[in-house]
Specification:
Blueprint: E1 26-27, H1 38-50, H2 53-64, E2 68-72, E3 84-88, E4 103-104, H3 134-149, H4 151-177, E5 180-181, H5 182-199, H6 211-223, H7 238-246, H8 256-269, H9 271-279, H10 284-317, H11 319-336, H12 344-349, H13 351-363, E6 369-374, E7 378-381, E8 386-389, E9 394-398, H14 399-402, H15 406-409, H16 423-428, H17 454-471, E10 472-481, E11 486-495
Parallel strand pairs: 1-8, 3-9
Antiparallel strand pairs: 2-3, 4-6, 5-11, 6-9, 7-8, 10-11
Helix pairs in contact: 1-2, 3-9, 4-5, 4-17, 5-10, 6-8, 8-10, 10-13, 11-17, 13-17
Bound molecules: protoporphyrin IX containing FE.
Residues 105, 109, 126-127, 129, 136, 140, 143, 294, 298-299, 302-303, 306, 366-367, 370, 435-437, 449, 451-453, 456-457 line the site of protoporphyrin IX containing FE (HEM).
Length: 502
């Protein structure tokens, strides 16, 4: 990836909103790693328990008066052999993480630690491969081919296997219990939907219903080092939780029987997909483990965070936004839909719904961290200074800070603004939306590390908004924090007038 993909990094052509001085002062990267072993643990406790994520980073920005600094990152000892990173927390320095001519992305998907490959059939799956590794090209191409081959199924499957099921469950739970736990329903239904969308067969179609529970255990084993306040909710003391989750990898054998069931399902239901893999020179076995990971970790893991996050922002925005979205969706369906249903053509007319989705992905990126190692020595620029980075050093980006940079998004960068991306001026900001590990204005390729499912994610998020406001005028929900992202309990739904009484 050449640096001219990020014109604001070039001194010759500063963007209007990036009027940085032409000659930035060269500075030492501030911050220190402290005393080995002791300081990384202190940093970990601050990050999880004493300060929390945002305060941990903000206090260091304030302390060093810099958005680029040295720090330890979680989980630290003994899980990670080296916790030392250079944090890049502004919109100018962050895109260095996408520049594969300068950084290497080998084995950094989960950061400073890597889960055992025993959890992925002994394979390093695509997310852990650097684009320079030959199997990266083959696997990513295979995933592109699979998504392309299934593209006509996504919309009808979302409507019948996701939206219809989840909406009717929410309605009946609200009617009987006064509320519905959206996250639990989403966790159950989204995995079946993905089976239908990607392979035409959900786990229950092939006698494997409930597979998502095994997938959840498998996910937890990989993500436990990044989780906190899970056991403390059960009155386990913080330090005990810290020791149990963040010090040693949980044993992979816990997931072994479940993983065997996952493999059997993907190998059977995904048989046509595996035929596609053979065409690009992959073995069926390696492709099957990658299929499991792309579906269960990348997609299902992502949708477990994205859909509740989207609904939480919609709930907090209130009736006025709901009314505008309902009007837009229904007008688009009336003029461009078919038989009163959402089509791709209708979706294209929904500018506000589209902007809402981008704004959620900007302000609450479902994957908050990105990491990379410097491939060579280079100068890294923030808005205010440039810094010497040495080959081998680890770079770390906390995306919610970079995509809430006031120098790009203005004084209201920290607020949820539903219309932010509407119109030509809004469209210009899309290149600063980075949830997919690359600008929203670019497409993933086999040569970069941008999310292979970028377009699928934006499509299903837009479908979510469209299907929701085709069925409902408004809703209310209680929002709290969950393991990752938001916990949403829907407390009331107002059915669309045309549909009321159905
Ligand atoms: C990579 C986010 C859905 C497949 C990534 C990365 C991010 C991301 C941030 C880059 C990680 C890094 O290298 O630092 C998400 C989110 C999703 C989602 C938030 C859903 C809400 C999907 C879907 C697929 C997918 C639907 C389906 C194929 C992949 C793959 C990679 C990747 C294969 C590695 C790309 C490479 O090695 O070049 N995703 N993703 N993801 N994602 Fe997604």
């Amino acid at each position: 990836m050449s640096s001219n993909r990020y014109p604001w990094l070039q001194k010759e052509k500063p963007q209007p909103e990036q009027q940085a001085p032409l000659l930035l002062p060269t500075k030492e990267i501030p911050g220190s790693y402290g005393i080995p072993f002791i300081t990384p643990i202190k940093d970990r406790l601050d990050y999880y328990y004493f300060k929390g994520h945002d305060k941990f980073f903000q206090s260091k920005i304030d302390q060093y008066s810099s958005t680029v600094f040295r720090t330890n990152m979680i989980p630290g000892p003994f899980m990670a052999s080296d916790p030392r990173v250079i944090a890049v927390l502004d919109a100018k320095s962050f895109p260095i993480l996408f520049d594969t001519s300068k950084v290497e992305k080998k084995d950094v998907f989960t950061g400073t630690y890597m889960p055992s490959t025993k959890l992925t059939g002994g394979h390093r799956v695509c997310s852990y491969l650097d684009p320079s590794e030959p199997s990266h090209t083959k696997i990513k191409q295979f995933l592109f081919n699979l998504l392309k081959s299934r593209k006509d199924y996504f919309l009808p499957s979302f409507r019948s296997d996701y939206a219809a099921r989840i909406f009717s469950s929410v309605e009946s739970q609200v009617a009987s219990n006064g509320q519905a736990n959206f996250n639990d329903l989403n966790n159950d239904i989204a995995f079946d939907f993905l089976g239908k969308a990607y392979f035409g067969k959900s786990p229950s179609d092939v006698g494997a219903s409930g597979l998502q529970k095994k997938v959840t255990i498998w996910l937890l084993l990989q993500l436990a080092p990044l989780a906190s306040n899970v056991l403390t909710k059960l009155h386990v003391p913080k330090l005990v939780e810290d020791f149990l989750l963040h010090t040693f990898a949980l044993p992979s054998f816990i997931a072994k029987p479940g993983y065997k069931s996952m493999y059997d399902y993907f190998n059977t239901a995904g048989s046509a997909a595996l035929d596609l893999a053979e065409k690009v020179g992959l073995s069926r076995d390696e492709a099957c483990h990658n299929l499991i990971f792309a579906t269960s970790f990348n997609t299902y893991g992502g949708l477990r965070v994205l859909f509740p996050g989207l609904l939480a922002r919609l709930a907090q925005s209130g009736r006025e936004l709901h009314g505008r979205l309902a009007t837009e969706v229904r007008q688009a369906v009336a003029s461009h839909g078919e038989n009163g249903q959402v089509t791709l053509g209708a979706l294209e007319q929904m500018e506000l719904a589209k902007s809402v989705v981008y704004e959620v992905l900007r302000i609450d990126p479902p994957v908050e961290f990105q990491y990379a190692h410097a491939k060579k020595d280079f100068l890294l620029q923030s808005h205010d200074a440039q810094f010497q980075v040495r080959k081998g050093e680890m770079l770390f980006g906390y995306q919610p800070f970079a995509t809430r940079d006031t120098r790009v998004f203005g004084a209201n960068a920290g607020e949820f603004v539903p219309d932010r991306f509407v119109g030509p001026d809004g469209a210009k900001l899309l290149r600063y939306v980075w949830w997919s590990n690359g600008p929203e204005t670019e497409e993933p390729t086999v040569n970069d590390k941008q999310c292979a499912g970028k377009n699928f994610v934006v499509l299903v998020a837009r479908l979510f908004v469209a299907e929701f406001f085709l069925s409902y005028d408004s809703f209310t929900a209680e929002i709290s924090g969950s393991l990752v992202g938001s916990q949403v309990n829907i407390t009331s739904l107002t059915k669309a007038k045309a549909k009321a009484g159905n």
